[in-house]
Each structure stands twice: as C-alpha cells, then as structure tokens.
Amino acid sequence: MAAVGDERARSITVIQGEFAISSDRRATISTLLGSCVAVCLCDRGARIGGMNHFLLPGEHPSGGTHKYGIHLMELLINGLLKAGASRGALEAKVFGGARMSDNLRDIGQSNVIFATQFLSREGIPVLSESTGGRMARRVRFSPTTGHAQQMLINETVDAIVETPKVSPIEPDVTLF
Predict the structure, then answer these.
(1) Would you say residue 113 lies in a domain?
(2) pTM for the whole thing?
(3) What is the tally of structural domains in the chain?
(4) Which of 75, 128, 138, 160 is deepest in the core (most CB within 10 A)?
(5) Contact (Cβ atoms closer than 8 angstroms) between residue 71 and residue 18
C-alpha cells in the first residue's frame, strides 16, 4: 500500500478481453498487442482515461463476450462516463492490428476497421493511430494526459543452440 504523498508510478496491465480506467495521475496502463487492437480513450479536461484490448471485431452472435470489440468499446465508454468523463470530450488513440500469420485471414485489419468505424459513428475523434504491419506492439498509456508510447517488437528469430559435447562415460561394469 502506498503512503500518502508517495509518488511511485502505478502500473495497470490490460490483457486480452479486458479494459481499465483510471484518474490516478501516477498510473500507466499497458498492454501487448499482435493482431488484437487496443483503443485508448481520454477526457483530458476531466483527467480520466482508459484502455481496452479486444481480440475480434464486432460482436459475438449470441451476445456480448469480453473478447469482442463491441462489448469492450461499450464497457470502456460507459465506464469512463460513469467515472466522470464527458462524451463530447473523449479523444482516441488506436494501436495494434498486425498481421501475425500469412496462413490465417487478416484478423488484425478487421479489428482496425471495426475500431475506426465504431469511433467515427460515436463521434469520437482519433488523434493518432499505429496499426497494421507485421510486428507486435507494447503500448503504454497515461490515462490522465492521453500521452501514449509504443515499442515495436521484432519477430523472434529461432536461436541456434549448440549441443554440448559430452565426454564418454567409462563403464564401471564389465560386459562378457
């Protein structure tokens, strides 16, 4: 537990199918994305913001499930409004949507299209976007200022591991 006046940063990690909201000026919300998309929303006047992390665009055919964009977008927006944000002051930043495999359909692109169309329909301006490509991203977001950072993560290269040389063991049993 932090003491009063403690200035240590507070880190909140958002994993697939989750969202987080904070008005703590020391908080940083972070996630790691591949084909998934994270939408960061902030009301800078109210000094509150949040991030979600969805796996699939649109909605589940049988109702809301946390891995779908529509459900997580609604949870994030409604959570921000409930915490004191103004709908008209919300600003967005969109990250992710990489194409992680040539063997599967481009779910990343579908996620990005969903997110940008949803935000447009809701009248929420997208201030910046870093989407697509072939690399994963680590995203850090300051919910009270709207400042975001990303680090692109290179594709992993298979390491060549040398088999260590083993000295032959002298048998202690004599075979006849």
Answers:
(1) yes
(2) 0.81
(3) 1
(4) 75
(5) no
